[in-house]
Amino acid sequence: MSHAPGQPFLPFALPEIGEDEIVEVIDTLRSGWITTGPKARRFEADFTAFLGDPSLQSIAVNSATAGLHLALEGLGIGPGDEVITTTHTFTATAEVVRYLGADVKLVDIDPATLCIDLAQVEAAIGPRTKAIMPVHYAGLAVDMPAVLAIAGRHGLKVVEDAAHALPTTRGGQLVGTFESDATVFSFYANKTMTTGEGGMLVTRDEALARRARIMRLHGMSRDAFDRFTATVPSWYYEIVAPGFKYNLTDIAAALGLHQLKRAQGFQQRRAQIAAQYDAAFAGLPLVTPPQPAAGDQHAWHLYALRLGDEAGIERDRFIEALFERGIGCSVHYIPLHLHPYWRDRYGLQPGQFPHSQQAYERLVSLPIYTRMDDADVERVVQAVRAVLRG
Ligand SMILES: *Cc1c(COP(=O)(O)O)cnc(C)c1O
């Protein structure tokens, strides 16, 4: 299968890397300090400033997966424990629970938001439950006050998977500033801002922050930059735990410093594209994505629409037909309960997750990124219309 000749292929996602990012990376390469050092520290400070709450600590890591792992590890999750999350997510959310020897309890989504169904969270809590991991699907905030109320009633920890949610608000409050134990952002190549690979763990918990800083670098009591910049000979360090190799390099942080400055502008452009799609698709046999409440900000990492009953075309065929017209799409997500590992480990059946299953069979994520111009958006719109006309 190949796409229409004559038009360039419009990929599903592309990063927007500007001249400032490139200059900063070159400066890093010339500086003599390329791994975790001054730029990673500045990126952490800038990130806390971006969230606007100095009681938060931002801990830069080499992926969101690493950040989620460090958060759960620092909260003491281990064998015998259970963590509740949504089946409608990327495997990274759940795999970190298994790294620690704990078990995952998957629950269905609310079909109105495609985010974790909080009534089902509460129903799934048992004697082994230790934590809840909500996922702000597509960049739409989960009802965090409700999650925190459930956690409070049952004495549970809360770790937010905010891989899609920079910048997202709910009730005027940025995701990352709620009273959860930790929030983790992703700077993977196709996320709303990128460092190539990278992530940020955000917490107000002093003990968790201290533990995560040590565990992200081999369980060392002092990092290399600390020792390098000391004014007295400082070769000495102590290993206090069998840690991980999760530090963010200064080369990556150099990208992050400038991407973060552009994060609000990036969001505005993505929101504009989402609104253009919403308007163009009204009246078509499609379910457009759930909207945030008035005054709230959706990060629009994904524009995930669902084919309606009257669409007259299967989802897989729809994606092929867009591909033939030179447009890349994706599906978010193949729910965890359908993957062999999760299915077999917990004996899961599609019927246990009817809303996620139904959404999965109809979901298509369209391209939505800042490098798309209005002509690109129009091309997607026209292609969608043409495919639906048959
Ligand atoms: C991208 C993503 C992750 C993992 O992020 P990495 O930075 O690639 O580790 C975790 N959860 C969700 C929902 C994601 O989309």
Give the SSE layout:
Elements: H1 19-31, H2 38-51, E1 57-61, H3 64-74, E2 82-86, H4 91-99, E3 103-107, H5 118-124, E4 129-133, H6 144-154, E5 157-161, E6 169-170, E7 173-174, E8 182-186, E9 199-203, H7 206-215, H8 224-228, H9 250-261, H10 263-281, E10 286-287, E11 303-307, H11 315-324, H12 340-346, H13 354-362, E12 363-366, H14 374-389
Parallel strand pairs: 2-3, 2-4, 4-5, 5-8
Antiparallel strand pairs: 1-9, 6-7, 8-9, 10-11, 11-12
Helix pairs in contact: 1-9, 2-9, 3-4, 3-7, 10-14
The structure holds pyridoxal-5'-phosphate (PLP).
Pyridoxal-5'-phosphate binds at residues 63-65, 89-90, 92-93, 135, 161, 163-164, 186, 188, 199.
Task: Describe what you observe in this structure.
The protein is of the alpha/beta class and 390 residues long. It folds into two domains: 19-261, 3-Layer(aba) Sandwich (Aspartate Aminotransferase, domain 2), CATH 3.40.640.10; 263-389, Aspartate Aminotransferase, domain 1 (Alpha-Beta Complex), CATH 3.90.1150.10. The protein contains 14 helices and twelve strands. Strands 1-9-8-5-4-2-3 form a seven-stranded mixed beta sheet, with helices on both faces. Strand 4, helix 6 (144-154) and strand 5 form a beta-alpha-beta unit. Helix 2 (38-51) packs parallel to helix 9 and helix 3 crosses helix 7. The longest helix is centred in the last third of the chain and has 19 residues, at 263-281. The chain is globular and about 75 Å long. Bound molecules: pyridoxal-5'-phosphate. Pyridoxal-5'-phosphate is lined by residues 63-65, 89-90, 92-93, 135, 161, 163-164, 186, 188, 199. Pyridoxal-5'-phosphate (PLP) binds at residues 63-65, 89-90, 92-93, 135, 161, 163-164, 186, 188, 199.
